[in-house]
Amino acid sequence: MTLKPHADLKTALDMARMIAWNSELHSEALIWSGDYIEFFGLPPTAHEGTAHQAVHPTDIGHVATEATRCKRTGDEFFVEWRDWTGERWYASRGRITPGTPGQSGRMVGVTWEVTGRVRAEEALGRREALYRALVENGFDAITLLDADSHVLYNGPRNAAIMGRGPDDQPDVWGELHPDDAPAARIAWQKILTTPDVTLLHQTRRRHKDGRWIWIEATSTNLLHDPHIQAIVVIWRDITAQKITEEKARDAQMLLEKAQEVGRIGCWWSDVADDGALFWTKEISRITGLSDATFDGKVATFFRIIHPDDVDTVKRASHAAFYKGKPFDIEYRIVRPNSEVIWVLARAEVFFDMAGRPVQMVGILQDITERKRFEQSLLQAQKLESVGRLAGGVAHDFNNLLTIILGHAHALEKLLPSDATQRRHLEAVQTAAQRGSDLVKRLLAFGRKRPLVPQAVVLTELVAEAMQLLHPTLDARIELYCEAASPDVVVRGDPTQLLQILMNLALNARDAMPRGGRLTFTVDVAALTADDKRPDPEMRPGGYGVLRVVDTGFGLSDEAKAHLFEPFFTTKGVGQGTGLGLASCYGIVKQHGGGIRMHSQPGAGTTVDVFLPLSERADDQPEVPHEPANGRRGDETVLVVEDEPRLRELIVDALQEQGYCTLAAADGETALAAAAVHDGPIHLLITDVAMPSLGGPNLAVRLRLIRPELQVLYVSGYTADVAMRDADASAFLEKPFTMTNLLRITRELLDGRC
């Protein structure tokens, strides 16, 4: 049945998309204000009078129950339900009107469609569920604060991060690390004064277990937003990240320190990026190019490569890029201050899928010190080889000098004391003696002269040298002594050390033909394993330093490269032997020291002689035993010498003194001669170095069958070199006179040596 409402009410209901209804309390029949079937979109077969046809079957019970309850209690009726299709939602609201005499009470109400609102509420519910899932299950925590930093909302992740219970209220400022509080308050004031701006900040907060954890937060001021009216803080625990960052920083610092210590840096170049070049801090130190002076281009780097090495680097780069060869080269770099250094570069080229080079990654190492050490070592090895050669030459020359002196001595005995020929003989002896001195200087260079070590006060040594120099120096040369450390004591042979000073001083004199200044300085130096030492073989420790400085014409680089080589001289023909500095070098090396020279043309020369400091200041010189005078004898002597003329000379001298002699040219022949000799052999005189069987081994084998045998070794080398592995009764260094030979022979046979 259709209710006939007032026309204005009908218009209002239609505009509101509502339909009015009423029914008696005891009846389920409804009276509608409009077309019930049309309003609910019912099929034409539906009939008016009941709402059950329009209600979805699953909602009928709910609607009927609510209507019954309201009729019974008189409460207002309100229910939402789905229509018969289940696609639309409706809301019904009604009120009980009391009955009058003769009429029962009625329920009067309206129904309207709420599908749009229900769908919106469902969508909102889904969004709220999604947001809740994000808040409750996300990694980040969310806190809403008011302008006074009071907590309005604390997400469930907050308690988990800070170790609090779900009902524990956070203390925003009380949990903050004291060191972070000032910056945090400044950030808070900035947040309050800048709406809609998101601020990122990191602080430390105290966990419930007492430890400090790092928090990273983004804060946005939405106090002005009527729907939010809060400062939204989204934050997370970044403690693990901070620990990782700290370890990464430590590793980076360690890497940088390792690169600094090793003088090695890393670099990489992108071929496609217009030759862009990147490198680590250490390469900036190596090259001297700072970030401000380097534009990151390969072409710029090539400008600091030494001009003589540019083509080498380019060829190596081309071979690495296009021939697949290893990039591993050494070249020089000219730093901005004009200093030239050596570097080692190694790299690997990376290619794309088409085989085109795209990137080069490598290292650059400063190897300047290594290069200098290699140069010093090569020079030392070169000089050592020359020294060995000098020693060999000296050995052979000593044989000749011994022969010359021996025959000169024999002739001297034959000539009358007033014979005019004696002056020629004396000239021969003088020349042989000068030759002997020359040999000693050669042996000094080869470090084959014996030392007589003792404590030497360097200032006293310099004073003695200055006394000797005064008469020989040009009056225009001023002589000075400066003792930075007056009590410097070294252990060495004072005679040989004095020879060093004299040689250096005389060289300085010759470098100042028009006069100048010659200065001796005494100082000390402590050399560590990391210091650049004048000689690679020098040990770390304390050294006394003798410095000789002149204001002469200086030396060229070419001259300095050969300065310590025997027979090299910068003087004119006939003005020098070239053995002065060579012998200085040998003496200093023999003392365990080193020589450093600095000289430039026109700027004078400075020579530093490093000598190990003495551990004792009361050492006494170790003086060699002086042989006593000899007499005639009748014992049997076996002479073994591979130089025939010297062997004959020794045999003749012995026989003249009454000795019986056996002679052999080498060790094997000597063994054979001793084997067939029936009588005793009292003394073996043998050269040390001989073919097939040397003197020391010969003596050992002879003493197995003749244990009483005395041995006298002779050699062109000194005892400390020649007898290094031998047990000698006595030793005589060549060149020697027959007088000394006979004297030592007698002493050995008399048991006085």
Structure, explained:
The chain has 753 residues and is of the alpha+beta class. The protein has five domains: 7-120, Beta-Lactamase (2-Layer Sandwich), CATH 3.30.450; 138-237, 2-Layer Sandwich (Beta-Lactamase); 246-366, Beta-Lactamase, CATH 3.30.450.20; 454-612, 2-Layer Sandwich (Heat Shock Protein 90); 636-749, Response regulator (Rossmann fold). It is 38% helix and 25% strand. The strands form six sheets. A five-stranded antiparallel sheet has the order 2-1-5-4-3, with helices on both faces. The protein has a five-stranded antiparallel sheet with strand order 7-6-10-9-8, sandwiched between helices. A hairpin with a 5-residue loop joins strand 8 and strand 9. Helix 13 packs across helix 14 (494-510) and helix 18 (667-676) packs parallel to helix 19 (695-705). It is rod-shaped, with a radius of gyration of 56 Å. The protein starts with 6 loop residues before the first helix and ends with a helix. Residues 572-578 and 617-630 have low confidence and may be disordered.
